[in-house]
Amino acid sequence: MLQAVTSANPGSGDEPWVGRSIERVEDAALLSGRGRFIDDLGVQPGSLHATILRSPHAHADILSIDVEAAKRWPGVAAVLTGSDVKAVTTSLVVGVKAPVECWPIAMDRVRYVGEPVAVVVATDRACAEDAAELINVDYRPRGAVVDPLGAISTGAPVLHDGFPGNLASDRAFRYGDPDTAFADAPHRFSIDIRYPRNSCTPIETYGVIASHDAGEDAYEVLANFQGPFSIHTVIARALKVPGNRLRLRTPPDSGGSFGVKQGVFPYIVLIAAAARITGRPVKWIEDRLEHLTASVSATNRATTLAAAVAADGKILALDWDQVEDCGAHLRAPEPATLYRMHGNLTGAYDIHNVKIRNRVVVTNKTPTGLNRGFGGPQVYFALERLVQRIAIGLGLDPLDVIKRNLIDAGAFPYRTATGALLDSGNYQEAVALAVEQGRLAALRAKRDEARAQGRLYGIGFTAVVEPSVSNMGYITTVLTAAERRKAGPKNGAQATATVGLDPVGSVTVHVASVPQGQGHRTVLAQVVADVFGLHLKDIRVNTEIDTAKDAWSIASGNYASRFAAAVAGTAKIAAERVAGRLARIAASQLNVEATDIVFARGFVASRHNPENRIAFSRVAALSHWSPGSLPDDAGQTIRETVFWTPPELTPPDEDDRINSSLCHGFIFDFCGVEIDPTTLETRIDRYVTMHDCGTILHPGMVNGQIRGGFTQALGAALLEEYAYAEDGSFLTGTLADYLLPTTTEVPEPEIFHMETPSPFTPLGAKGVGEGNCMSTPVCLANAVADALGVADVTLPLVPARLAGLVRGAEPPPPAGGATAAPARGGDRRLRGEGQASVKGAPEQVWAMLLEPATLQSVIPGCQRVDKITDTHFRADVTLGVGPVSGRYRADVELFDLDPPRAVRLRGGATGALGFGNAEGRITLAPDGNGGTKLTYSYDAAVGGKVASIGGRLLDGATRVIIGQFFTALARKAGGGSAESGGFSLFAVLAKLASLFGGRR
Amino acid sequence: MTRLKADQRHSVRFTLNGRPVEGEAEPRMLLSDFLRHQLGATGTHVGCEHGVCGACTIVVDGMLTRSCLTLAAQVDGCELKTVEGLAPSADRLGVLQQAFRRNHALQCGFCTAGILMSLDHYLATHPAPTEADIRDLLSGHICRCTGYTPIIQAALEAAAQLASSTKETSDA
Amino acid sequence: MKPPAFDYLRAETTGDVLDGLAQQGGDARVLAGGQSLMAMLNMRLAKPKLLIDIMRLKELRQIERKGDAIVIGAGVRQADLLAWPQLAETLPLVALALPWVGHMQTRSRGTICGSLAHADPSAEMPLTLVALGGEVLLRSAKRRRRVSAKDFFAGMMLTARADDELIEGISLPLVKGSRVAFREVARRHGDFAIVACAAMRTPTGVRLAVGGVADVPTARDWPVLDGSALDDALNAFAYELGARDDVHATARYRRDLVRLIGRDLIGEVLR
């Protein structure tokens, strides 16, 4: 249903390039192994390689860091800790007004698992990793909080003194008269949402190569950063140099980003600092474990959304209460995720009264940042789930409730209650087309039929407005009007494009758009070739950025779906300016009026007399070879740089209304899902997605964006979650636990289009890349809720979770047989108990327990036990269990001694793989036969790397090994040998080490 | 029996895309790193280093191989094929590569090399795969850009084209 | 994410392997397909001093019929066995389970015995070995021994293999004409099983083996059961397996699957 795209070069007689799904200029290199990604580019001889030691704790004070052994390791050039970095940098700026610092490395406290603690710089990466294992960090754990509502509850551990109660921002907004609307409305519906954490996880991880010129105190950095380049100011400030002494470049290719590679910037500061301290270029390529644990995450959010609703389903007012969880630090540009959608909190609906409370909290999780959809998934999940609930509550069809509330086609440009100016659209027509072309009636019939057979089949609907081209000022909505007045206005979205003609008349285009696979070079060649009447191959496009040489501004980069709408349009303007001058030059040479000039087929010609023409390259080269022969008014045609920012993007007004984005596409989705009654797996039967993204520049790429967004959204809906335990342990640290969709889970969505061009963009295009990340998770959730007949569903729609919603009471265990362990929820501490019979009276056993030799004999590989006091021991142990052999430092204390009846043991162990701690109680009682009955109970937890990467098997291993320890202890007490048992904590760590593996 | 000492670099020789190559590696050096950083064959990419993402997949002695789960020392004397060996010449793409380009079966191109290697290997012995076959094969790869269906389409098109050209050759 | 340093020994005879294991003991690891071990090395979970590469040993690459058993050598890759023409006829349960092991790109390198050595409780090959009542053939410089499947798996990731022993191969009994069934539930195709079940008809009734729930794959034999007697037996078995919660599934969900899939599979093999 692609509409014809109007020619950018009318009158040429040739089909324009724009609007065609031509093959991409990028692909030949990428398909033959000749891409140039950051790790493919060589480094200067003598460059060093960095690795980062990261915190195993979610929240702890750093008591000391011993780096001496690491520094002495052959090949190591430097080991940096927080204080070293602090000496050459300053804190990253924080986006709210609060006395809070934000460093790229922990200073004296860690606040999330994976937070950098030390950087080792060495001749190669493996060597750096060898040395990192030799660093001893002494932590004193603090209580951790991972739940956003828990974080702001009384008594929660506080992360930053400058954020009292963990609250970084608390703002209330009121638009229209929501209180009256709620008071007068016949119905009120409300929904509580917990949107989970996830990430778009590009397959290429972060990379940074940095060097420092001490003579000029200037940094040069190559990084696969994606923008926005407002962050350049943050980096330069942190490195304590003016912007012109931070030369930031990007490699020619970048392996996906989806927002995520904005988050590389703290590492730019860190690696640049390492380069300065070592005086050598330093390279760091993030590995996958680092990426999953600590790169960046989308925000998780707790939302309560209420609607005042008329009897016919018309929504009269909304009441949003959003608690945004930005993780352990509020890193730039956060809390942007929360405010990006501020103008769009009414979605595709005509709702005049809105009340909002926005709170931003910090928790002991990885700091958040850009991720495709950026605030949209969180908002639409609440809004569109609520719409379904309204329909059920009022006995209406959900589609009818959607249609009842859609903004009228005649209302555009439409100002939303919260300030967005929706540029164009015809939502009713889009819905009608989708219903017809997507065969909704057939889908409904299929559902009826399936249900008649007792199958679990459901249909979901979603209508979504997809904002694109962010207003750089929207984030200032987090400030009060008074604070904004003080800070000065921020707004706009400067796009830049340069078109250059070289001395043989060939055309070069440069934009500051930083693509990560979106095909910008192809589209720009299309746009500019149309303006000049040239062949695609005549245009060469460069999309690398070099902040020292290129035109750029704070909005530069690839985010907020700004390319087609803003950047491509700016390139068109630049080309047209050059073309205008070329036309004057050609007109003087051809003796015609400039208005008679057309560009076609490589010539500049008279429209009326096409034979009167001159080769494009000849006109194009004239500025170089013979500027004197140009007409006086023509100006140079060597290079034209255009900066374009739309006037519609104004700062927030006094009443906090903000036009947060320039363009607003429309998406209407519906889908049918079937749920397996045994496994509760969700199978997507059909997925229909209708898009209006304005003028389509390249249909193949537009559909590519839709499919890609759909697939990432499918992952968010069904599979992906950055899961944390209540103690802050990160549980999904490998790609075997953070589950991305593969070919066997992803169907082809049925894609339909209509085009209402944006009146605000040069090409009429709007963004399209993020929409399905906003619409698809909730559309699938609505379908699953429909299939199961449940009111609440939480993402991801994990089968076990759905089973919990629909399965009744479990068959009880057989009498006298095994029973189920209590459900654990988020509590990761393991508890257990057992008993053993031991020879010897309790007094003998007691004496044995207090001997260091006992510990030494039950800990395998224990070289030495140091007795600190009579009841406090330290040990260094080398363990070998399965394939594992590692050194651990252990500390064991006995307390609450009640001789000869009871004692408690508390112990901890720390090594490169993480930490464990446990507490156990042992009681001794005479067994009546001269022996002793030994009973034990324990309570243990393991954290750090093993929890992140071995989580699937963690509990089982911990339980088994602890049982072995106590058995060994009992055996020792009974005079036997300790055999294969092991002290729990070491053994647990070692055991866990063997837990992970790909399959074989 | 050959025992290579941990702290020394040892010569590793094999055939890469039909040409003999040689370099030096410590025993612990991964094949992916050896290809990329010792030999400069950077077309093979590294995405997870634990065998899940599939970006580093190559062919060793006729076996699909995760080069991140393989030591350089293991392939001494073997025959390796990587993405650099797919095109018939530097300025031409092969049938499979062309099908990828035609179907927009790649965006960032980072995972693509591994996917191409799996398909190139598979199609050589399975001339008429079904969509289900291709989906099963490629479930060992992760692509975050395309949503996979263009890749599957490209694979099926390439298979059909390769089968018909093979048929023409054998008919002739 | 680079491996720690180790020596690498390219074995040319089984004697090389046994000598290496005898000398280095627990500090040596056998490198076969590497699909689990290499990931662990990259994550620095494992730190052997010596890796012994056995994949150049032709004598370990055999799949042989010996009487009423099939013997599969340590060097036999999963893909090799899957491509073995007699597989479906002689080892129908293996033919059903093998395609669930990882992906084509990992089966091409990974070995049958390597998967057993790794002893992941969710893996398909340990489950199959237990279901079939096979044996593991262990060999050190000093002796050879055979260990039954149920004795081989000592716990989660733990086996009866001593540090100086090589898993030389496994022996799987032929179960001719017996009906078998296999089903697995995982989050995605190719993932570790949340629950995997194998069922087979036995001379006295039926056997159900379950992986992914207990610390080791566990088999249970029953006489021919149906109706509520079967429900009760499955329910008791489900509880006895001691299912646990993890990030992918709850214990209750696992028990449900044991009951539901167990019933389906038993119905299938008894039909």
UniProtKB/TrEMBL annotation, chain A:
UniProt domain Aldehyde oxidase/xanthine dehydrogenase a/b hammerhead: residue ranges: 32-143
Keywords: Molybdenum, Oxidoreductase
Superkingdom of origin: Bacteria
Start and end residues of each stretch annotated as Disordered: 807-838
PANTHER family listed in its UniProt record: ALDEHYDE OXIDASE 1-RELATED, XANTHINE DEHYDROGENASE
Stated name of the protein: Molybdopterin-dependent oxidoreductase
Organism: Bradyrhizobium zhengyangense
Automatic annotation (TrEMBL), chain B:
Superkingdom to which the source organism belongs: Bacteria
Pfam families linked: Fer2 (PF00111), Fer2_2 (PF01799)
Keyword Oxidoreductase: yes
Recorded GO MF terms: 2 iron, 2 sulfur cluster binding; metal ion binding; oxidoreductase activity
Segment forming the signal sequence: none
SUPFAM superfamilies: 2Fe-2S ferredoxin-like, CO dehydrogenase ISP C-domain like
CDD domains: fer2
PROSITE patterns: 2FE2S_FER_1, 2FE2S_FER_2
Record-linked InterPro entries: 2Fe-2S-bd, 2Fe-2S-bd_dom_sf, 2Fe-2S_ferredoxin-like_sf, 2Fe-2S_ferredoxin-type, 2Fe2S_fd_BS, Beta-grasp_dom_sf, Diverse_Oxidoreductases
Record keywords: 2Fe-2S, Iron, Iron-sulfur, Metal-binding, Oxidoreductase
Domain (2Fe-2S ferredoxin-type): residue spans on this chain: 10-86
GTP-binding keyword on record: no
PANTHER family: OXIDOREDUCTASE WITH IRON-SULFUR SUBUNIT (PTHR44379)
Protein name stated in the entry: (2Fe-2S)-binding protein
Organism expressing this protein natively: Bradyrhizobium zhengyangense
From TrEMBL, chain C:
Pfam families (alphabetical): CO_deh_flav_C, FAD_binding_5
Keyword annotations of the record: FAD, Flavoprotein, Oxidoreductase
InterPro entries the record matches: CO_DH_flav_C, CO_DH_flav_C_dom_sf, Diverse_Substr_Oxidored, FAD-bd_PCMH, FAD-bd_PCMH-like_sf, FAD-bd_PCMH_sub1, FAD-bd_PCMH_sub2, Mopterin_DH_FAD-bd
Annotated ranges, domain FAD-binding PCMH-type: 1-177
Any GO molecular function: FAD binding
Protein name stated in the entry: FAD binding domain-containing protein
Species name: Bradyrhizobium zhengyangense
Organism taxonomic ancestry: Bacteria, Pseudomonadati, Pseudomonadota, Alphaproteobacteria, Hyphomicrobiales
